[in-house]
Amino acid sequence: MSKTASLGRSEVQKEIAMNNGVAQSVTRTQPLWLLAEVTYRCPLHCAFCYNPTDYDKHTQNELTTEQWINALREARKLGALQLGISGGEPLLRDDIEEIVVEAKKLGYYSNLITSGVGLTEKRIQAFKEGGLDHIQLSMHDITEEINNFITNTRTFELKKKVAAMIKSHGYPMVLNVVIHRYNIGHVKEILEMAEALGADYVELANTQYYGWSLINRSQLMPTMEQLQAAEKVTNEFREKHGNKMKIFFVVPDYYAERPKKCMNGWGEVFMIVTANGDVLPCHSARVLPNMQFPNVKGDSLSYAWSESDAFNKYRGDAWMKDPCRTCDEKEKDLGGCRCQAFMLTGDAEIADPVCTKSPYRHLIVEAIEEAKNPVIASQPIIFRNDKNSRALMEGEFADRVKPFHALP
Ligand code: SF4
Ligand code: SF4
Fold it and tell me: Model-level pTM?
């Protein structure tokens, strides 16, 4: 994977240098991952949801089954191998079975990313027969109280039943648990629950602050001490229980000194098609200003990947400003996340403020300080639902949105 990406990058860099910052011709990179965000509808209302806060405007114009199947075919021709079927809650669509069958025919490794709501015996049987390779289930806590609070639903018992159903159909059990202030003290018990459910993989995904989690940041963000304690507990669990259940502890950006190489490089391996057909290099890219994104209703994926300004704009490093431009670490992280840079600073071309070399690092330090202060953090959570999405678009919650540059 990295070999392909690196070959592509050097080619793209050459193009970018020749074309005043925007590569105009075909690149040698290929999308290895296609993420199909098939719907933004969701029966859950998670406070940390990574979906855009203005998702409500995209719920009426979802792609048809045929349009999805075409997108799968085109992406496969471009070289995509992995297919994520995500949302919202993908199971709210009744054509996932058809999409799975087509994915199998095309030779994808397919992964259904679900809250579990809508997964029945009949559907899982159809997925198994249709060739779905993998199901990733989200879990939230060991307590019913916190599960139901953070998702604003009553889904605790259902999730346990779905976990057992996934296991009984011979799928590897892959649990994803988003970690935040309300459950970070339960990491040991969460791991014990996962083990009791027979999980093969557990991802402890510390909240990253995009979409709904950004407006709820002061409610969700744990302190450094809480994070360190959770990591310690995770390591102790690994030592005691061995590697039978693989545990991934995803460190949150804000507590790192360098940013992540976001999406493994802009336009290097990931391609996301959203519910309404927009084609994005990353989940949050639509927050960026002055960007036109291709859409599968009128554009080919080949055009989107190779020629569109949106995919070429931040490929390579020619777009960088100082300190990234002259930084000897730029190959490692490519300056971090463009969306995070813009959301926090208003400048999409500046270093990700997570980096300690960024002139805006103080914004992260302030957020970390705020996490220690329960008075500042006493705002109510804005749950992810259609009403709040519309309210955000209409300018409500202005005080919550004001510190950020790109919401909704
Ligand atoms: S994070 Fe929660 S609300 Fe958002 S799509 Fe997933 S299940 Fe739905
Ligand atoms: S200055 Fe930019 S390139 Fe250098 S480490 Fe920080 S984010 Fe990465």
Answer: 0.89
